[in-house]
Each structure stands twice: as C-alpha cells, then as structure tokens.
Amino acid sequence: MLGKAFGRDEVALGVFTHRTTYLPGLLGSLRKIGDPPCVVVCADGPINVNMERLWAAFKRTQARYWVFLDDDIEFLGGDVLGDCVKALLRNRWAGCSIYSTFDPQSRAVDYEPWREGLRIAGRLKEQAAGWMTGYFMLVDREQVGDIGPDMSLPDANTAIDTSYSVAIRARGYRLGLVPHVCYHTQKDVQANVAVIHQVERYLMAKWGPFYWQTVGYTGCVLEWPIEYRVQDQPECFDA
Question: How far apart are CA 122 and CA 70, in angstroms?
Fold first, then answer.
C-alpha cells in the first residue's frame, strides 16, 4: 500500500470524534487498506473544535499529507491513500476526497472488481471538485498546512468541511475527487432552519457568491445522482 514511491510515514491518518460508537468499524477497516496507523482525537467538543485538535496533532508529525476522517466511515479496500497522493501530484491539487456509499452490503464486496465495474459504468471518475466532503479530506501540508478549520462559524457543527475547502480554494489552490469508495453510515439529521440561516449570513458576509459557486454537489455519493439537490437548504451542512 502507498506504492513504491511513498512510505507510511508520509501520510498521517486521523479521526476526530465526540463518541466511540463508530470507531470500531473505522479502525477495524484499516486492515483493508494496509493497516496504516491512525491518530484518534476523542473529546467532548463540537466539530470545528475537535478538527482543530486533530489539525494540531498533524502539525506535530513529519507527514506531508494529512487525512481528516469522520468517525462513521469504513474503508472497503484498495490503495486509497497511495492513489490519492498520486492523484494530488498528477493533477497539482492541494487536497482531495473520495466517493461514498450508504449501502451496508458494500462492506462485504470484493472491492477492486466492484470498483472497476463502477468505473466502467462511469459512476467513479478522477475529477476536479470545488470542495472536499468531510468524511475524507486528504491535504498537502506543504501547500495548505497553515489553513485550519473556521473557528468563527456561528454554529460549530455546521459547514466545517465546506468552509475549510473554500478557504483553500480562496488561496487559488485546486481540489479533486478520486475514484475510491468508502462506506458511510447513513443517519437521519434534522436541519435547524434558524441555524442554517445564521450560518448562511455568516458565509455570505465572509465569502460572498464565491462560497456558493464553489460548494455545488459533486456526485460523490453513489446513491445520489449528480442531479441530486438538497431542497430548501444549501449543500454545506455536516451530517
């Protein structure tokens, strides 16, 4: 894993969470991608605070590439980390994400033949993306290591991944989507309209139309076609 050109110490993998519910699934799935070490930040804090804690932990490593993970995903197989790093270098991206599926049956598939079938069907593509989905965000420390989560968001659990991505894009860096898939636990999340409007006003004041032009849906969820749109709210809210 990671290929001949990359060593295990070049990529730091980490997850931040306020619970332990999903950690066994995530940590157990690491064996499917070469069993890399993973930093776990488990603290009773909101998303941006815990992400900042993981960001600080990454800065104490020597790794060039950092991978921020949600706790409720599982890897399915393949050289995910090596292929993402290669895609960054090949496309001159500063960061990337991967596809996801809500289908629990995906955890039992023969991963590479299944992935190849999705590629042939045109459902997985290596492509530029406006933003990185929060369940998997791999970034190049040498380019954007000084950029951390937005600690001024009016709701500390909302728009963390999109605001982080937009801060990177605002520097002129590019992001991408790599044709690998992880399993993501589907949860019923009820939107708070008052919070949404508060965050919208903050983002518009900070970034203007650039934010909304950047965070359009990328087609990264296999169950949602590219035409999918969340009704009555922008696509910037963390599940």
Answer: 26
Half-sphere exposure of 172 (CA within 13 A, CB side): 0
Query: Residue ranges per domain, the chain?
Result: 8-214
Which conformational region is residue 221 in: left (phi greater than 0), alpha (psi within -120 to 50 degrees), or beta?
A: beta
Cα–Cα distance for residue pair 138/13, rounded to 1 Å: 9
Residue type, 75: F
Q: What is the DSSP letter of 156?
A: T
Which pLDDT does position 5 carry in this prediction? 47
Shortest CA distance to 175 belongs to which of 238, 98, 97? Answer: 97
Predicted local distance difference test score (pLDDT) of residue 227: 60
Asked if 207 contacts 170 with a C-beta cutoff of 8 angstroms, the reply is: yes
CATH number of 8-214: 3.90.550.10
DSSP 60-115: TS--SEEEEE-TTEEE-SS-HHHHHHHHHHHHT-SEEEEEEE--GGGGGS-HHHHH
Q: What is the mean pLDDT of each successive set of 10 residues along the chain, which is 239 residues long? A: 60 96 97 97 95 98 97 98 98 98 97 98 96 98 98 96 98 98 90 92 97 94 73 39
CA angle 89, 135, 104 (to 5 degrees): 115
